[in-house]
Predict the 3D structure of the following.
Amino acid sequence: MKLIAVTSCPTGIAHTYMAAEALEQAAEAAGHEISVETQGAAGATPLTEAQIAEADAVVFAADVDVRDKERFAGKPTVTGSVKRAINDAAGLISEAVDAAGSSDAAPKPAAPTPPPRTHHAALSFGSQLRQWLMTGVSYMIPFVAAGGILIALSFVLGGAEIAAIVDGGTFQSTEYPGVSDLSKLFSEAGFAGVMFKLGATAFEMLVPILAGFIAFGMADRMGIAPGVVGGLIAVAIGAGFLGGLVAGLLAGAVTLGLKQIKVPRGVAGIMPVVVIPLLSVFAVGFLMLVVVGGPIATVQSGLTDWLDGLAGANAVVLGAVLGAMMGFDLGGPVNKVAYLFGTAALASDNLTVMAAVMAAGMVPPLGLALATVIRRKLFTQPERQAGEAAWLLGLSFITEGAIPFAAADPLRVIPSTVVGGAAAGATSMAVGSTLMAPHGGIWVIGLIGSPLGYLLAIVVGTAVTCGVVVAAKYVRRDTGEPAAQAEPTTATQAIAA
Amino acid sequence: MSDLITTDLVDLDLTGEDCHQATAALANRLAKQGRVTDVDGFLSDVRAREEQMPTGIEGGIGIPHARSAHVTAPSLAFGRCAGGVDFGAADGPADLVFLIAAPNGDEHMTILASLARRLVHESFKNALRTAPDADAVVTLIEKEVLGR
């Protein structure tokens, strides 16, 4: 494998070169080629365009900013401190090899490397899009893991009613006022209540972070503000993670466009400070709020009416439809319609609908977690990590656990969660399971009627989700698109000039 | 230019309570040879670098260093410290201390760069640990770093 690295330290006398030497030794020992650019006091001999184009992965071992980082846009990247490179060069090298998509993936392009300054065009649009999405996903995963696990643990410690205790609402016919004064949260809702609130807060940032760092992947630092604001609006208008994807891509594109504008030298200084942030935040926010917001509300009310019309239809069909909706956008507007339909049915003592809805909502994270275990190679390193947390999230009916997968590869993952959700919903209806709680997952098993049939529904849905996603991911392999190019590690940043 | 290191810049029995004392002892050797014009000024430059991030690295190495206006020639002072001095490395104190003094300006930096590159080689470190006297240290460094 061909690797490149940049090393850089504060003084540029010692550690820059030690890191370079250590990386060279470690790469050689592991049987890889490496070229290192030492950005130190002795002057850097820059990596050539050809070296960069040929490289499978980039290692940044730097305690200060790497100069001209945009040269490496689109490359799988591993970042570490200079000391890490000196002390554990072998570890960094093996991470870089992982980032490049493990040694057996991604045959090197046979075509000659592209001419200088056109390396953006070297990536197909599809690969580049996946790279941007993956950047957003890799920054979002810690929020999913922390928030999801905190919420799950709060259910375990405090019972599923903890959500109603903190936020207010009805649980098992008991009306809870909720905690409005956060300073009283601990005394009124206890440790579990605090955990639930923290988890919910982390979850609120999930879509803004996704959108912000997709835009960062596209347009570098300037993309973050419009991306995050667009993501917050996606949350506010109930657009879910799909709205976040739209906001992030929109913000990246708008920012890239604004950066292209040539302005007189005198104005150039205020472009990045005032003009680009102002215009990009306004444009993205306006589009999300005014243009995207309206249709979503229309679709939601249309779907609600449609479901009401289906209420008398065959129960298994209704379960399949609700399940498909739960899996479609994983906490987004369509999912919300199905969930509210379930809670409305619960309020009118129709307990089978709620059961089907929850089963379908548990299946997406479980099915994807299973897929990362049985077909590891089909998933990137960040996705595999997300898979580890997704087990607990799925068991706790935290459908958002599937978002990292869906956001990284929506066209293959969403069909699997839709079909798997439908299978779970239909099975739950067919076995006649009931549920007396609006959430809680496996932790409210005591409130579930015919629990064995319910477990069957979850197992069926999980298996179907897993099967469909694995099949869909193989389709990508068959078309010969190198998956590796879209596989940065968690420390990765894709930078576009 | 003068040599990077001479026997007067080698201290095989370096002592010091902490990294600052050990560094100061080596800096005084540089000053005696006229390679550093103002010891206190130089030491404060070294300390500023050390405070940014400790220079110790795993394997018993401390590399206090600075580019400073008080340095007249690129120099290395080397100390071996049986008791060890803490330079902030994760795995404990350093027994090999390299004080690198670089003048402002970009000349001679390649020599210091190749010195730094040698420091990650286990064989170089072991040879320094077992060198019998200052002459052997100077010969070893000249051979490994300057290739002569």
Remarks:
- The interface with chain A takes residues 49, 52-53, 55, 57-58, 63, 65-67, 90, 100, 102, 106, 109-110, 112-114, 116-121 of chain B (CB under 8 Å).
- Chain B has one domain: 7-146.
- The mean pLDDT of chain B is 86.
- The CA atoms of residues 10 and 78 of chain B lie 5 Å apart.
